[in-house]
Design a protein that fits this description.
Layout lengths: L3 E4 L12 E6 L3 E6 L2 E7 L5 E8 L5 E9 L9 E3 L6 E4 L2 E4 L10 E4 L3 E2 L2 E6 L7 E6 L13 E5 L5 E5 L1 E6 L1
C-alpha cells in the first residue's frame, strides 16, 4: 500500500520466508524493494519526517530483523518502540510480535521512537506463512493505531503475497 493505495508491481506478486523486504525514502522518492529488486517507486514531497510503523492482524504472528535508519547515512538511533496506545505488541531484538488482542488491524501497533527527515530506510525479513502484517513509513507517531495510518506500507498476506500501498491506495502487488 502506498498512501492508501494498493500497489500491484511486486516482483512475482510473492515473497518467501526469509526474503529481505525494504522501503527507502531519499527526500524525493519512496522506493519498495523485495528479493533485491525495486518493484515500485513514487515521487513524494521533500522534507518529510518518516517513522517506522506497523500492525499485525493475528496474535502470535511476528516480523523479524527489523532495521530502521536514516538514509543514506545509516544512523540506527531510531530504536523501534511500542506505540503508547496499546500493549498488544512485544518488541525484542528487532522483532515485533502481536502478543494479545483479537484478530484485528487496530489493536496492536508498533512505531519507532525517532523519525528521519529527508531520508529513511526500513528493512525486515519476510515472516513465515500464517501472518497478515503491514509495515512501512508513517508520518505521525502519535496516530499509529491502524494500517490506514501507515502512509507508505507493504501488506504481507499468509499466502506469501505482498502489496505496496501509498495513502491507502494499492500501487503494486498481486
Amino acid at each position: 500500500y502506498l498512501d492508501g493505495s494498493h500497489d500491484t508491481s511486486f516482483p512475482n506478486g510473492s515473497y518467501d520466508a526469509g526474503d529481505t523486504i525494504s522501503i527507502s525514502y531519499d527526500g524525493f522518492y519512496v522506493r519498495f524493494f523485495a528479493k533485491g529488486v525495486e518493484f515500485h517507486k513514487i515521487a513524494v514531497a521533500a522534507d518529510q519526517t518518516l517513522f517506522m510503523d506497523s500492525t499485525i492482524y493475528y496474535v502470535d504472528a511476528t516480523i523479524e530483523d527489523i532495521t530502521f535508519a536514516s538514509f543514506p547515512t545509516a544512523d540506527y538511533s531510531g530504536a523501534v518502540k511500542l506505540s503508547t496506545a496499546n500493549s498488544n505488541m512485544h518488541i525484542a531484538g528487532g522483532t515485533i510480535e502481536k502478543i494479545a488482542g483479537g484478530t484485528s488491524w487496530s489493536d496492536a501497533s508498533a512505531v519507532s521512537e525517532i523519525g528521519y527527515e529527508n531520508g529513511a530506510e526500513l528493512s525486515f525479513t519476510a515472516p513465515t506463512d500464517s501472518v497478515y502484517a503491514m509495515i512501512g513509513f508513517g508520518e505521525d507517531p502519535t496516530n499509529q493505531h491502524n494500517y490506514s495510518d501507515i502512509a507508505h506500507r507493504i501488506y504481507l498476506t499468509s499466502a506469501g503475497l505482498a502489496y505496496a500501498y501509498v495513502d491507502g491506495v494499492q500501487q503494486a502487488g498481486s
